[in-house]
Amino acid sequence: MDKKNNGVIALLIILGILLLGMFWFIGVRNGLVTEKEALKSAWAQVENQYQRRSDLIPNLVNTVQGYADQEEETLLQVTQARSLATSMNINFEGEVSAEELAAYDSAQGFLSNSLSRLLAISESYPNLKANESFLELQSQLEGTENRIATERGRFNEKVREFNTSIKLFPKNFIANALGYTEYPYFESDEGSEEVPNVEF
């Protein structure tokens, strides 16, 4: 009878350890899923802000066009940059390479530069600078650019949390077994760490 009790106790201990291991695995897996969903949500917010900026551009181009017909090349460049930026998509369901994110970021940067040139044109056209629609669109674009920077920062924070999580022992074994890989960060543009010299 003692041997039988010892066998039952040993079996219960083994089952208990297996159950604890299973619950731990489920907890780790659920944590990884939660972190990846937070990362995807942060990415969606970045895309929302870029989309908002893109939605403002046709009105801005039309407003500028009404005052500055001779700036056709700049207006065309903004329209082409917008088309390129909106055609790029990144799917965070699978792996995302640093090159994909850099290409996306480059297209968005090209659009930002084109918009900057377009807004600089207003300096040559006093009537445009005084136009209420133009001023409102300019203000909305500035606000959107600030929100883009904020959302990119939040996205990078979620990437950091996720990447750190899948590297930590012993989570890294489960992350590797489930196919989780690191995600790239948004990188700042070269030279952006230098403060520009503004003269009045």
Short summary of the structure?
The chain is mainly alpha-helical and 200 residues long. It is 77% helix and 0% strand.
Which stretches are low in confidence, meaning pLDDT under 50 for 5 or more residues running? 191-200
What is the general shape?
rod-shaped
What is the N-to-C order of secondary-structure elements (H for helix, E for strand)?
HHHHHH
Domain unit count: 1
**What fraction strand?**
under 5%
Write the CATH fold name: de novo design (two linked rop proteins)
Helicity level: over 70%
Give the overall pLDDT as a whole number: 87
CA(first)-CA(last) distance: 96 Å
Q: What is the count of β-strands?
A: 0
Tally of helical segments:
6
CATH superfamily: LemA-like domain
Structure description:
The chain has one domain (37-177): LemA-like domain (de novo design (two linked rop proteins)), CATH 1.20.1440.20. Helix 2 packs antiparallel against helix 3. It has 200 residues and is mostly helical. The protein has helices at residues 2-67, 72-87, 98-121, 126-130, 132-167, 171-177. The chain is built from six helices and no strands.
Write the layout of secondary structure elements.
Layout: H1 2-67, H2 72-87, H3 98-121, H4 126-130, H5 132-167, H6 171-177
Helix pairs in contact: 1-2, 1-5, 2-3
